[in-house]
Amino acid sequence: MGGPRGLTLAIVSLILIGIAVAGYLTYVHYADIDPVCAGGSGGCHTVQASDYAELVGIPVATIGLGGYIALAISLLIPGELGRAAGMALALIGAGFSLYLTYLELFVINAICQWCVASAVIMVLLAILTTLRMLRGPAPPEQTADTAGA
Prior knowledge:
It is built from five helices and two strands; from the N terminus they run H-H-E-E-H-H-H.
C-alpha cells in the first residue's frame, strides 16, 4: 500500500465498490425485484423483505449509499478534519454493518451476499481510514526544485 497516497487510493477504490454495491441494492429495493445472488436469491430476498430492511422508512441500502458518498466527500476536506471525518464515518458505518450482519445471522436467519460484501467493504474502510488518520498528512510531492536537483 506504499504510503499515504497508496492508502488513499485503496480507500477510494473501496468507496467506489461500496457505492456500486449499495447503489445496486437501492435499485433492487425501489424496482421491487430480487437481487441476483450466487446460488439463488432466497437469502437476499428474505433479508430485503424483512422488517430490518428499512430504518424509519429509509431503505438500509440507501443509508449505506449515503454513507459511502459521505466518505468520498470526506476525502475532499483537507487536513486532519477530513481524515477525522472519514474515520468517524467509516467506524460508524462498520459498527452499523456489523449490527446488520448480526441481525442476518441471529434474527432474520438469512444471509444476503450483497449485504455481507458491503459490511466487509465498510470494515476494511474503517481500518484504512483509521490508519490514514494515525499516519497523518501525505508529504508534499517532490519536484526538481524541492529535491535539490
